[in-house]
Amino acid sequence: MADIFEHYAHDDEHLVAPLRTELEKQDVSCCSHDGNRFPKLAGARKLQKIVVALAMLLMFAGLSGCQNKGDFPAFFRSFVAPPAAQAPQQHGAYRIGQEYGGGIIFYVDATGKHGLIAAKDDVLMPYTDAWQGCVEAVQFRWSTGQSVINNNGDYAYQDLGTLNAIGQGALNTRKMLERYPVKTYPYSAAAVVTGYKGGGFTDWFLPSKDELNQLYLNKNVVGGFSAAESYWSSSELGSDLAWYQYFNFGYQSDVGKEANGRVRPVRAF
Asked: How does pLDDT run across 164-191, given as a tens digit for each residue?
């Protein structure tokens, strides 16, 4: 673990500095192996916190898809702590976990009359990536793979004005499609989600950051998620980053829009 720590410390000090600080605060005894320090923490909980944090740096390899997986630390900017698990709830005539409208209800608002439905499966669509030529099936770019020439129409880093709140996912998805239309970019996250026709419905969209979090909270009643990979939201964090959520630990973080992630369609009722 020390080798990994020092490797990322060289180029991404801003990412590992908090971990280094946490180590230095602990009651640590060290031994040497090839010049590296191996901490022995006094408490198991302290070790767990540091291991989880390091794991979060490494887990992006599962989201990067076609990209050079060695480049992933530079994409990270922030983390949101995972929420507590949520038990299925009854709201009026609808309940979380109910099969309805082409999928499974995972959110019901305070009125009990409206909510969100998730598809039963992730989008599966084999294709060849236009930028790197690799074959994918379950991972899709948020925007495009073009991150070099910023005055080109297919530039990946463009601010679309998306929002995070529940109720914004459908509008966010429309904004993504306006900038990156399906005809030109048929395998973007927004394009494949709107092409989904589960239950005979055609109004599926990519969930907003907060909608995606509700989906994570109720992932067990919806089912079919890949715990080892991350899922896109339709929410941005500036022009070059978009929010995703890791469905094992539940952490939300941001990553470059040219990256690849899984897509789970949702729709409103």
From this structure: 999 999 999 999 999 999 999 999 999 9
Q: Which structural domain range is residue 47 located in?
A: 2-66
Task: Examine residue 243 and state whether it is found in any structural domain, yes or no.
Answer: yes
**82 part of a folded domain:** no
Q: Annotate the chain with DSSP letters as a single string.
A: -HHHHHHHHHH-HHHHHHHHHHHHHS--EEEEETTEEEEE-S-HHHHHHHHHHHHHHHGGGGT-TTS-GGGGGGG---EEPPPPP----EETTEETT-EETTEEEEEE-TTSS-EEEE-SS-----EE-TTT--EESS-EESS-SB-S-TTSTTBS--------STT-HHHHHHHHHHHS-TTT-TTBHHHHHHT--GGG----BPPPHHHHHHHHHTHHHH----TTSEEEEEEESSSSEEEEEETTT--EEEEETTSEEB---EEE-
Question: Is 77 domain-assigned?
Answer: no
Shared domain check, 103 and 45: no
